[in-house]
Amino acid sequence: MIHVSNVLLPWSHVCLRFEGLSLRWNQTGKRVTGDGSRGLSASQFREPTLLYIDANGAANGVTVIDTTVDGDHPEAFTFDKNGYIYLSSHNNNRVILYPPEFSNGTTVAGKNGVSSSALDRPNNPLGVDIDDDLNLYIIDGNNKRVMKWVPNATNGTIVIGSASTPSFYGSLLSLYSSNEAYVSSEDTIPVYLWTFGASSHRVTLTHVNVTPSLLKAPKCMRHDSYGNLYVADSDNSRVVMYCANSTVGTVVVSGADSTPTLGQPDDVTLDSNLNIYAVDENNQVVIKYEKL
């Protein structure tokens, strides 16, 4: 049962980009999966980092892809418009494509697990995203860049980054431009909006309207249907929302003030009703916060 609190935090009432609309989230959340212990059973996680929402509603998980045979360590995944899943394996330096029935995977980026700075060999691939033309965007972590792989390509092209840029972690394509993406870095403070091919970022998202007033080790990011950006502010134990066209964030879930306590959110997403789900890597759970 979801416990509804009558007390709203001052920052739980958030303006959207359309006048007259607002969002509020209950700070009493519900643990929807994960029993809080580390393990391999269907009710347990070991350092969960990413999630997607469907309509199932089950309390226990079903393994759809087992990467232990090939020794892959999944870091991130995304779905294309046809239901195919793209999974990054940071230790084997590749991205694997699985069909909708989750049968055998095929390497679509990377070669034989060998890393380098060459355009055909990612080095510690992390976040992934894909557009409607099936172009794949990969955070090439140790090479400090974002790579674009067109369908059936054997090489990627650099769209963001150079030796002087930070090591990126998460990537999210912009809703408003086909040649921009948000990138995060768990080693630094900001989230950047970066135009492909540009030598530096166009927008910096750093500030938050409450203390702590800066992001710290932001990880994964998501949009809602209004174009607002949600950031898993990992080391600050909270979820921050940046309204469309705003560079000052608003805390929508606070680890210190929410129940159960949100420890280290690695990812955040929303369902069709705009309920928030946060992946807590420290506590091995996924928590749902209902929209009020």
Report what the structure shows.
The chain has a domain at 64-205: TolB, C-terminal domain (Neuraminidase, 6 Propeller). The chain has a five-stranded mixed beta sheet with strand order 16-20-19-18-17, with no helix packed on it. The protein is mainly beta. Strand 10 (145-149) and strand 11 form a beta hairpin. The chain is globular, with a radius of gyration of 19 Å. The protein has strands spanning 13-15, 22-24, 30-33, 74-79, 85-89, 94-98, 106-109, 125-130, 136-140, 145-149, 157-161, 171-173, 180-184, 191-195, 203-205, 207-208, 218-223, 229-233, 238-242, 248-254, 265-270, 276-280, 285-289.
Q: N- to C-terminal separation? A: 15 Å
Instruction: Order the strands across the largest sheet as they lie in space.
Output: 16-20-19-18-17
- CATH class group of the domain at 64-205: Mainly Beta
From the 3D coordinates, which CATH architecture of the domain at 64-205 would you assign?
Answer: 6 Propeller
What is the SS-derived class? mainly beta
In percent, how much strand structure appears in the residues? 35-45%
Shape: globular
Give the name of the CATH superfamily of the domain at 64-205: TolB, C-terminal domain
Number of helices: 0
CATH-derived topology of the domain at 64-205: Neuraminidase
Q: Tell me roughly what share of residues is in helical segments.
A: under 10%
What's the rounded overall pLDDT mean? 85
Order of helices and strands: EEEEEEEEEEEEEEEEEEEEEEE
Radius of gyration: 19 Å
Q: Which blocks of ≥5 consecutive residues have pLDDT under 50?
A: 1-13
Number of strands: 23
Question: What profile does the largest beta sheet have?
Answer: 5 strands, mixed
